[in-house]
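Project standup — Tuesday

K.O.: blocked on the structure for the chain from last sprint. Re-posting the sequence here as requested.
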Amino acid sequence: MTIADNIKRIRDEIAEIALRSGRKPSDISLVAASKTRTAEEVRQAIDAGVDAVGENRVQEMLQKNEQGAYIGPPLHFIGTLQSNKVRQIVGVCDLIESVDSLALIEKIGAKASSLEIVQDILIEVNIGAEPQKSGILPERLDEIIEIASNTPGVCVRGLMAIPPIYEKNERNCYYFDAMLKLFVDIKAKRYDNNSVQFLSMGMSDSYADAIRAGSNMVRIGTAIFGIR
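H.V.: unblocked you, prediction finished:
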């Protein structure tokens, strides 16, 4: 199976799930998670029609960007972002999906303001309260978004999560459902300088359940590119 074949198969499945849940297939954004993939593989995914490309590592993203890998769709940063790397990606990527602290929000805002731009971000939520994972705990989400809404240079566009994965789908869906509730609550509130639109959750092994639960952005790597 080629990258294009894989993307067509995923698109068909996304379309079927979306229609069954009363949404349009175009409501779901397909992000190609291209960690460790070559610039040529990224270009193949773009040519096959992915909506965005997501990178996990700053240096890898910068190298591929120099090679012209991302021409066309938006570029997302989806990995853990260290504060000392902020200056390298603000204004380079269209959306930073993995913002997980007030310190990071402040650094992103300061860098974006110095460039006279506004950087779109997602707030990463540690929905399972897992100590080994990054992300803001759900009970702090209102506070964080309130502060972000008053931070020049940033615009909160939604939420991102990597929920715990269990063998039984019921447990997976519990966390997806919890994220949807947070998303709906945040979207209903009126924050300045925010435009909440995206709920980014679901990867190669969980995107179907995530979409059924309400995700409108999925980050898929292995199912597109194959095993590393």
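K.O.: great, moving the ticket to review. Residues 28 and 216 are 4 Å apart (CA to CA). The radius of gyration is 17 Å.
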